Input
Amino acid sequence: MRSINSVIITLLMSTAMVLGQEKFQIHGHYSQAIAISSDKTVFGIPTSGTFDYRLVGLQFSFNPAERHRITFQMRHRRLGRNPVMSIEEDIVYDWGFYQFNISDNTWIKAGKILRPFGIYSEISDVSVLLPFYQATYTLYFDGNFTSKAYDGAAFFHDFNLSEDWNLSVELFAGQYKFNEWYIINNPITGERQELIGTVDARNSFGLWSWLNTPHEGIRFGFGGSQADFKNGIQYSQNGLVGPEKTRIWHVSLDITKDSWYLRNEGSMVQALINNFNGFGSTSQLSIELVPNIRLNLQYEWLTIVEAPVFGAENGAKTDFNYQKDAALGFSYSNNGIYTLKLEGHWNRSFAIEEPSSFIGDDPPSTYYAIFSIAGAF
Output
């Protein structure tokens, strides 16, 4: 895969140089943070603090001819002590695709394409556009994906339903990968051990839509997808879950006004073979207190229902709260040149990077704080 990606990047760069600068553009975004946790290491943030928390993306785009566009992004990311960092290279080919505009409101894409779900999925790495340092774990699972793109194709069309109503629809199909990790105490040596696996999501297909209303700044999003999960730790033949057919539903409400916005999102994950579900939700409120300074509030939760108990007899299942996170933050934006953010999170989660058990335990609790700077060019 690395050799294929290298060939693609070389061809794209060579084409860009031949075409000339008038059809070639470079954009980028960056974020750098200082973070510390009170009791547990969570999302890569240790109790001793870390400066190793950043993301840099460099995007290359060029138009070889009218209606044709080629775009790709290279990325560098660090998430402190998150286990995924042990397998992620310093610079990766993040995503890239060819787009043909059939008309002003219809296009097709092919390549490694960002998945379209939700408000933030296509911009979740661009911290300057987010109210907090990164998108919520409950819906976007930052830290589990080395890339939030799939290898495949997409079709998009924008429907003008009436003078006041508009519906955009994106259909997509392909395959993608994501990482999963667990931290255990080795039963023989008692030592801390990190288990990291890569899940193959194949035969994936889905749809995402935005319904824009006559009321300025109000839109509804809805969609779903399905994929076959195999390999990794959970979804290997002898894993906790085994190979699974998974269906995901997602809904969004985005109300954006001049001085404030309210954003609510919900998701349901259905394991169709093992018959268990996950439910999650996120709510965000951002208010401009004075010019360039905003107050940001956020709450998210994730619950697993009827999950199989590994090693239990008679197919025993259990329910548990996987994650709850309440956040308060302030941000200062220098007219879009850069943004400073200070945020605190009260977290109860099994996403901690320490040994824990889901069964019979309450989620471990901790508090973490992040101070960051982000920008784009």
